């Protein structure tokens, strides 16, 4: 928490009031909520590199699964099911 927040809030009713105003997008006096000051940053990444990264990501899981044998894949699946707390993991 910042020190400014502690010094500017004197009434406990102001916190819920600000939550309601933020949720509705307008102040309770009827005036519209001011727009955020800063627009989001533009994407500065190279589009060609991003496209190549997406291609590799879509192939990565399939390629690693193809390298594994059925026994190893089964072990990995059982470990994942156990980590999720799946009831089928206890039956195995």
Structural class: mainly alpha
Poorly predicted runs of 5 or more residues? none
Alpha plus pi helix count: 5
Strand runs, count: 0
Strand content: under 5%
Taking the alpha carbons of the first and last residues, their distance comes to: 48 Å
| Major sheet details | none
Order of helices and strands: HHHHH
Helix content: 55-70%
**Morphology:** elongated
What's the layout of helices and strands?
Layout: H1 3-8, H2 14-24, H3 47-67, H4 70-84, H5 87-91
Summarize the structure.
Helix content is 63%, strand content 0%. With 92 residues, the protein is mainly alpha-helical.
What does this molecule look like?
Among the domains are: 1-30, no CATH class; 65-92, no CATH class. The model has no long low-confidence stretch (mean pLDDT 78). With 92 residues, the protein is an all-alpha fold. It has helices spanning 3-8, 14-24, 47-67, 70-84, 87-91.
Which labels suit this protein?
92 residues; single chain; 63% helix; mainly alpha
């Amino acid at each position: 928490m910042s020190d400014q927040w502690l010094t500017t809030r004197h009434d406990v009713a102001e916190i819920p009031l600000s939550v309601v105003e933020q949720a509705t997008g307008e102040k309770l006096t009827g005036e519209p909520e001011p727009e955020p000051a800063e627009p989001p940053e533009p994407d500065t990444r190279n589009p060609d590199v991003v496209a190549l990264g997406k291609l590799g990501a879509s192939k990565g899981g399939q390629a690693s699964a193809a390298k594994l044998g059925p026994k190893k894949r089964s072990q990995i699946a059982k470990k994942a099911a156990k980590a999720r707390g799946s009831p089928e993991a206890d039956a195995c």
